[in-house]
Design brief:
The structure is a homodimer of 515-residue chains. Chain A is an alpha/beta fold and 515 residues long. Helices cover 36% and strands 21% of the residues of chain A.
């Protein structure tokens, strides 16, 4: 069986026994094994800081942009191989796999472009010069400088390619070396991708390391200039925030965690309209793409009471069309969830929802997947529930990370919709479908403080929209509260985590010479 | 004896016994007593969020600016009374008291001006519109909206007026209500100031509360849209970061903690030059102003080996001029530290420094203060030490929060100076004195990642400079690592803690109508 290695301190190393086994979640067939036991994590961090940090800091933004371009190219030339691995190890359909792998390329390319735009400088000005004294002579200028540590990226199992790439793009462009730790269960794609970066000489020595399994004692060695960024569950986030480095050495911990993203249908949207079609398409895509395992996927669908039965019928019809089975097989639209643990989690979540909701489609998710030996694979079918009690706690408090969503009726009043959405305790994205600017103008200020992104679906943008579930490199990704309070991407915004903002104060001509 | 009250849920309330006693640190005479025992902190938070938050959000930025202007005015008309209280309760000379009280007014006024500039809007755009689709139709626009919670401000004992004002200015302008908790030992000024705001009707109902003593169970009740900002010791910061609200509800904790701010004298600075005079004046001011109890005060003075004896002699001469005693007395330039605990801390710190440094001035800080009964008051004289070993751990690792600094020799190489400064593990501000742009250009990129501010002292700006110890509202205040990783002030930057950044994604004309 293939054995994964970790790339630390400039070389590929293998961990000691015991090893974890990576499987195909559709067939449960073992694919590879990995371990990080015995790897010198303190040494890995020191190497990244010393070699990688220095190497990146000698490069200008434009040159770092070229590094990202080379990484995107390394994915491009291995695209078919990576897609096949995503299908095998991730339970992805080919379309799901493209969403991950092409998303990785697109994000690296977008930050490569941003690097070219920022040009040959090393220190980035932040805002304009500020007059401080009686005359313009005494001046202030804020600058952004790369932190002198390393970035530890703890990535989620659902996006092994994009997750690694989007975090690495911002850190590397900022000038900070990366240690990427993919989730063990789906690490094959991240492993192959990283091998590709190194085979092609895309990244400077020390600037990208890979820990292909548990991080061991790495967290204990994080120091004052290091950064920790995490995507995953609230429980793990809580532990990471409590590590000594975060509590006593001010290591920032950026978290993307649970999010009960909502979709709000406004009362102005007519049956059969383009906006309604967008509303249905976005919700069904989010439920089924990657078997609902997207942190941005719609979990709560808030619908005017008056339209309820019609909308439920619309969903039933559309969900009935979804073929579930071995994602390697032609015609299958939804594969399994990625692991036995995830399947158990999703089933428990559906059970919790069932206590206060009614079934609309898919019952408890039992399904006979096509093209799979009986009893094999971590499959759950699309499940739509209806919350007659719009404030039922489980509906707003438990993220069921699978092909599961709940319809919630409301009066049609934007304030009521916003209040229901806010019960989610903070999310990554909520989408509002309306062609009534009055509704949008009332909903947006109420929804904004609880979200990192608001997607405003309308007839005019429907033909161009990638849907709310797609995270774009130019827009902020991250939400407050339950969603973790993190900020990723959004162009320059995502780079801030890796930069120190410093106010320079002095003679104006001295400051001008520096930036 | 005067009894302080807390202002919560729209009324002044008194805590139960036992009470803490506030004293005059020069005479140890009791001034007032206070307690917060039995106060309904959950209710206080709810009231602030509900009443205060709503009231502030109905105001535009310009209108919130007027609130801050009214607060500045309320201080202005009570200035003499507040200065007298600062002298009594803070151990401040009149000049120290002005630094605190006038600083509060200046910061409120600066944010009042910023409010006027931001105008009548409620939602602030963050950056430009972004084209997302094939055409300009599908667009993105980031906006900043006020969080829907309350801000708990835990302030430090050294700046009861400015500390409350600078934190409140940013939160209130952002649209978030404030619960201010001054340090108990010096709470008189904050108490009187807050009474003034309320007497003058300067602040909307619920937007400013005062907890005049320990916060009780307030921290336990912080929720997902709340914010915690703290200035004080690393130990307390560590505890605050570990509260459940921060770990599991993503409540952001902004920390300003210990900082071993440095001053670097470049080799080009000639004896008797204007730049050298600035170097001496800044260091001596920072050692003695507020008895060295400024988080921005210079603790490490890095001097070219070749100039060492000359510089030491310069300090001896200047420090010998400093009269220490009852700050209420004419001619006294430095008062006591603020409490018996602080005195014990400073003495222990000097002892720790003494293990690896030589005395230059003031020995261990024993002093006979003028105008004080023998044995009374928390006095320590100015202490200057010399570290023959430039890397001695205590010199770079222990912030002695009193009139204490250490001179450290270096070769004159900017990289070496920066390396020594970086041993401090991250600071609020470091100052570099040089008229050699080559030296400055080499030092700045090395120093920047370790600091929130760099003060570049030179002959050209000397006449206008307030010195590195003065925190300006337009420049960032906060540093990485040991300094806590926080970001305050800096104009709009300091407001970010209280705002959610949200990416709006939709039809361009819809977005344009919103911002």
């Amino acid at each position: 069986m293939q054995r994964l290695m970790s790339f630390v301190s400039g070389e590929w190393v293998e961990g000691n026994e015991p090893r974890s086994v990576l499987v195909n979640p559709a067939t449960e067939e073992p694919l590879a094994e990995t371990s990080t036991a015995g790897i010198d994590m303190a040494g890995a961090l020191a190497y990244a800081r010393e070699r990688g940090g220095k190497a990146l800091r000698t490069l200008s933004f434009a040159e770092r942009g070229k590094v990202l371009r080379a990484m995107a190219n390394a994915i491009h030339v291995r695209r078919e191989e990576l897609l096949a691995l995503a299908v095998q190890n991730g339970g992805n359909t080919r379309s799901d796999a493209k969403f991950d792998v092409d998303g990785a390329m697109a994000t690296l390319s977008a930050y490569a472009d941003l690097g070219a735009e920022l040009g040959e400088r090393h220190l980035l000005p932040d805002g304009e010069g500020i007059q401080l004294g009686r005359t313009a002579r005494l001046s202030g200028q804020h600058v952004l400088a790369p932190k002198r540590g390393a970035a530890l990226h703890i990535n989620a199992f659902n996006f092994p390619a994009w997750g690694l790439a989007e975090k690495a793009a911002t850190a590397l462009l900022a000038g900070v070396p990366v240690i990427a730790k993919p989730a063990t269960s789906t690490a094959l794609v991240a492993y192959r991708m990283t091998r590709g970066f190194l085979e092609d000489g895309a990244v400077p020595d020390g600037s990208l390391s890979l820990v292909a399994g548990p991080p061991g004692d790495l967290l204990e060695h994080l120091d004052r200039q290091d950064v920790l960024a995490f995507t995953g569950s609230s429980q793990t986030a809580m532990k990471l925030r409590g590590v000594d480095a975060a509590l006593s050495r001010s290591v920032p911990v950026n978290v993307e965690a649970d999010s009960l993203n909502a979709s709000v249908l406004a009362p102005d949207v007519a049956a059969g309209s383009e906006t309604e079609a967008l509303f249905f398409a976005d919700a069904v895509r989010d439920m089924t793409q990657k078997a609902g395992q997207k942190c941005t996927a719609i979990r709560r669908i808030i619908v005017p009471e008056a339209r309820l039965s019609e909308v439920l019928a619309g969903f039933e019809e559309r969900l009935a069309d979804v073929t579930v089975g071995d994602p390697a097989r032609e015609g299958v639209r939804m594969g399994p969830v990625t692991s036995a643990d995830q399947l158990a989690e999703v089933r428990a979540g559906i059970e919790a929802l069932a206590e206060t909701t009614e079934p609309v489609f898919g019952g408890a998710g039992a399904i006979e997947p096509v093209g799979v030996d009986q009893g094999k694979g971590y499959f759950v079918g699309p499940v739509l529930r209806l919350a007659r009690d719009p404030r039922a706690a489980a509906v707003h408090g438990r993220e069921v990370f699978g092909p599961v969503a709940t319809v919630i009726p409301y009066s049609g009043d934007p304030d009521e919709a916003a209040e229901l959405v806010a019960l989610g305790g903070g999310g990554l994205v909520t989408s509002v479908y309306s062609d009534d600017r009055g509704f949008v103008a009332r909903a947006v200020p109420e929804l904004a403080p609880h979200h990192g992104r608001l997607y405003l679906g309308s007839a005019k943008m429907a033909s161009q929209s990638p849907g709310p579930g797609t995270v774009l490199p130019t827009l902020l990704h991250g939400g407050p509260g339950r969603a973790g309070g993190g900020q990723e991407l959004g162009g320059l915004r995502g780079m801030r985590l890796y930069q120190q903002c410093t106010a320079l104060q002095g003679d104006k001509s001295v400051l001008n010479a520096l930036v």
